[in-house]
Amino acid sequence: MKIWFVTPCSREFAGPFAEVLETTIKKFPREGTTVTCGWISEGEQPFSTPTLHQFALATNGVAMANSIIVAEKQGYDAGIVGCTIDPGLYAARSVVDIPVTACTESAVLLSPHPWFQIFYNSTRRLSSILYSRRPHALRFN
Length: 141
Hints:
Blueprint: E1 2-7, H1 11-14, H2 16-25, E2 34-39, H3 50-73, E3 78-81, H4 89-95, E4 100-102, H5 103-110, E5 116-120, E6 126-131
Parallel strand pairs: 1-2, 1-3, 3-4
Antiparallel strand pairs: 5-6
């Protein structure tokens, strides 16, 4: 099995973290599984204003989804979005046939925290995760 782990910045931008990440993700796969770390540079810019931040997230999400599309065409069996805000996760899922997951979403789904409410669409794919600082606000009938 081949897994594509894509990060939302270039290897150069990541600096020393790049080597740590690449070393770490190779320690855990079971025998016969390889994990390749992918790097992108689209959307990589300082988040000096909210508008720039939103632009960078949108650009980055498209680049992350495109990276997973390319990985599927190259024969990868799964994709992982390696960013705390999971940019491009839902977009990638909607256009590829391989499983796509993300670090933050996985942590939230495994969390028994009452402040998260999880919704699925009619195809049983995750459609959204709501977070509230007021857990009572998430209780829908």
